[in-house]
Amino acid sequence: MSYFSSDFKLGILGGGQLGKMMLYATRKFDIATKVIDSSKDAPSRLACDEFVQGDILDYDTVLEFGRSVDLLTFEIENVNVDALETLENEGKKVYPSSKTLRTIQNKATQKLFYTDHHIPTAPFSRFAYASEIEDAIDNGGLSIPFVWKSARFGYDGQGVKVIRTISDLKELPNTECIAEALIPFKNELAVIVARNESGEIKTYPTVEMEFHPEANQVEYVLCPARLPEHITNKAEALALKVADAYKHVGLLAVEMFLTKDDDVLVNEVAPRPHNSGHYSIEGSFTCQFEQHLRAILNLPLGKTESTVAGVMVNLVGAENHTGDVLYKNIEHIMAMDGVTPHIYGKKQTRPFRKMGHVTIIDKDINKARAIAQNVKETIQVISK
Amino acid sequence: MSYFSSDFKLGILGGGQLGKMMLYATRKFDIATKVIDSSKDAPSRLACDEFVQGDILDYDTVLEFGRSVDLLTFEIENVNVDALETLENEGKKVYPSSKTLRTIQNKATQKLFYTDHHIPTAPFSRFAYASEIEDAIDNGGLSIPFVWKSARFGYDGQGVKVIRTISDLKELPNTECIAEALIPFKNELAVIVARNESGEIKTYPTVEMEFHPEANQVEYVLCPARLPEHITNKAEALALKVADAYKHVGLLAVEMFLTKDDDVLVNEVAPRPHNSGHYSIEGSFTCQFEQHLRAILNLPLGKTESTVAGVMVNLVGAENHTGDVLYKNIEHIMAMDGVTPHIYGKKQTRPFRKMGHVTIIDKDINKARAIAQNVKETIQVISK
Fold first, then answer.
1. Which domains does chain B have, with CATH numbers?
2. Mind listing the pLDDT tens digit of every residue in chain B (384 residues)?
3. For residues B38, B41, B47 and B48, what is the CA-based torsion angle, rounded to 10 degrees?
4. Which of B299, B303, B342 is nearest residue A338 as measured by Cβ atoms?
5. CA angle A339, A344, A345 (to 5 degrees)
6. What are residue A72's phi and psi, to 5 degrees?
7. Are A256 and A266 in contact (CB under 8 A)?
8. How many CB pairs under 8 A join A and B?
9. Any B CB within 8 A of A296 CB
10. Portion 303-362 of A in contact with B at CB < 8 A
11. Closest of B316, B309, B324, B323 to residue B371, by C-alpha
12. DSSP states of B241-310 as a string?
C-alpha cells in the first residue's frame, strides 16, 4: 500500500487541537485526510482534504463516515465505539482498536483491566451509582479521604474530585464511578508508547508533569523528567507492559504516579497523541503526531529520543475572562530563548479552556524550566 | 497589532512547496492566510484560509489580491513586482520589499548591486543579448570558459550554463544575460539571514551544499558545514552585510562560493525561505518558515542555532519517469535513524522535478551524511 500522494484516505474522528497537529504530519507526508467534528469552527477544519460537520457520538454518523475512508483513527476518546466495532467487523482498519477504546472509555473497566493484567495501579472500589458511596463508608468498606472519579467522560479534570469530608459527596453526579485510594505521590509521570501493526514498539522518554493545584490541569511537562534513571527505566518498562497488554496500535500515553516509596503505579491511559508529548514537536527526533501516523499506517517507527530538553506550558484561559481571545504579551515570550507558541485557533476563551501551549527547548532542562516559568508569568490568555 | 486568532490576514503569492511549509507556521500561530497560485492543485491549496487561482505575474491580479490582505509576502521571486510597488505606494506592507525583489529578479542588476555595495562577487560582464557574447570574445573582452546566466527567470539550474567552447553559445536564448568568471571553488555555501522591520537581525549557521553534477540541483545540504570556524564566520559576516545592504525584511538566503584561496564570494540570493534551510524544520531551535513569519510580522526573531546536525536530501523525479508519482522504498528510508520525508504533494513526477525532500538529523554530522547517502541510494521517485 502506498499512502504518499495516493488515493488512500485517512479518516480522523474529532477536529480539536490534537487533530490539527496530526494534520501537520499528514500534510508533511501528503496523506489525504477526512475529518469529522461537531463544530464547523473546529481547529482541524483547515488542512484536511475534506471536512464533515457531524456528531461523533452518533452511531450512524460514525458508521457512514468510517465507510467513506480507508483507515480510521481518532483524536479524542469520546466517540461512538459501537460504530467502530461494526466497522472493524466489516473489515475496516480502525486504530487504535474499538476493544482498547471500549476498555479505556470506562474508568472502572480500565482499572479492572490493569488488575487482570497484573499492572500496578492504585487500589479502588467500583460503584454503579455515587449514592452507594455513603453506604460503603458507613459499612466501613471505604474510608475518607479518597479520589472520586466518574467512570465516563472525564476530561481535563472534569469528573475527578478529592473527597475529604462526607459533605463533599453531595455535589457528585449520581453516575457510575470509582473511589480510588488517595496515593501520596511525589510525581506524576507519563510515557508515550508507539506500537505499529507489525508489533514494533518504542517508548518516548519519561516526562514529569506539574499540575495546577486548583484546575487539576497540567501546567508544565518536562522532558526528560528530573529523576534518576532507575525510576524512569521502571516507568518506561511499565508503559511497555501496558501497551503490550492492550496489543495497542498507535500511540498510547500512559500516565503514572511515582509514590513516596518509589513505586510506579498506572493512573490512566490515552490511546492517542497526548498533551504530555507536545514537547516532541520541537524537542524530539520524531514528533508524536508523525509517530502516531507511522504506527497506524504500519510504517517503521521513528526515533523517540530527544534532540534537546523541552518544557511544555499549557495556555489556558484566564479566570474571569470569557469572549474573543487575546494573547496578551505573546510578543514578550517570543523574545525569550527557545520559545515557540502554538495557538490552537479557538476564537473564544473561557476560564481554564485549553487555548494553546508553549514549548521551551534548551540543552539544559533546568534552564528550560526557568524560562517556562517566565513564560507562564508573562503571557495571559484574556478576552478583548 | 495582534496577529494570533485575529482578523489579520496574511497574503502569500505562490502556492508551491515553500508556501505549503510556510502554512505549517501560520497554522501553528493561527494566523489567517490567503494564497494565490495559478494551479488549482498547488501544494498550498490546503491549510490556507482562502485560496485563489490566479496569475501572480499579472499586474491587476496581484494588485487586487494585495488589496484584499493586511500584509503581503511571497514564496517565489517570479511575481509581478510593479503591482507590489503600487501596493507599497498605497500604504500596504509588502515584505520582502518590491525594491529588493526588483534588484534580485534580474541577475545583472543583482550583480551590479553587489559591486556598488563593495560585496565580493565573481567578476562578470553584462550583455543585453546573448548574441553580443561572441563579439566580446572576438574582441578579447571575454575569454572562454565562463558561466552564462540568463538575467531573468533562472530557477533550479535552468538559465545557467558553463560555456567551454564557442559552439556552446549556439544553444543560448538570445536574451539579457551575464557572463561570469568561472571561479574554481572548493565549496558552495549558504547562510540564511532573518531581519525584522525593527532591524533585529540573526544568521542561521553556514550550510554546505553538494550539487548533482548534471542537473545543477542541490543534492545534499549539510548543517553545520564541515569547515573551520574562521571560514563560516566569514560567510556569516558577509551574509549579514548583504542583508544590511538590502535593508531586508524577511528571510534572505545568501548563496556563496568558497574559493580555493578561502575567499568567500556572493553567488546569488533568494528573499524567502530556501531549500538550504529545510533542515531547520527538524534541526534548528526555530524553523525557517516560522522565522520568516516572525520577521515579516515584526515579532522577535527566534534562536537560529541548531539542536542537532542535519542533512537535507532533495527528492527529485528520476530520469525516464513521467506520470503519477510513486515513492519507491520510502518505507525503507523511514526505518533509518533520524529520517523524516517531506512529500510536497505534486501528483505528477517528471525528470528532476522537485517532489519532496528528506531530512536526516543526528548528533554527528558525519553520521547524518552517511545516512543521507543511504537515503539517496534507496528511495526512488518514479511513475507508477
1. 9-94 (3.40.50.20), 123-181 (3.30.1490.20), 185-383 (3.30.470.20)
2. 689 999 999 999 999 999 999 999 999 999 999 999 999 999 999 999 999 999 999 999 999 999 999 999 999 999 999 999 999 999 999 999 999 999 999 999 999 999 999 999 999 999 999 889 999 999 888 999 999 999 987 555 568 889 999 999 988 888 899 999 998 889 999 999 999 999 999 999 999 999 877 766 788 999 999 999 999 999 999 999 999 999 999 999 999 999 999 999 999 999 999 999 999 999 999 999 999 999 999 999 999 999 999 999 999 999 999 999 999 999 999 999 999 999 999 999 999 899 999 999 999 999 999 999 999 999 999 999
3. 20
4. B303
5. 125
6. -120, 135
7. yes
8. 112
9. no
10. 303, 307-308, 325-327, 330-331, 334-335, 337-347, 356, 361
11. B309
12. HHHHHHT--EEEEEEEEEETTS-EEEEEEESS--GGGTTHHHHBSS-HHHHHHHHHTTPPPPP--BSSEE
Q: Cβ contacts (< 8 Å) between A285 and chain B: which residues? A: 282, 338, 361
Phi, psi of A276 (to 5 degrees): -75, -5
What lies within 8 Å, CB to CB, of A88 at 6+ separation is A94, A97, A98
Question: Contact A2/B327, CB-based, under 8 Å?
Answer: yes
Nine-digit cell string for B240:
549579514
Cell numbers found for residue A229: 534513571
Side chain identity, residue B266: V
Tell me how far apart the alpha carbons of residues B10 and B96 are, in angstroms, rounded to a whole number.
13
CA distance B161 to chain A (A): 33
Nearest by CB: A27 against B29, B47, B283? B47
Closest alpha carbon to A279 in A222, A236, A335, A210: A222
A24·B24 Cβ contact <8 A: yes
Residues in chain A, overall count: 384
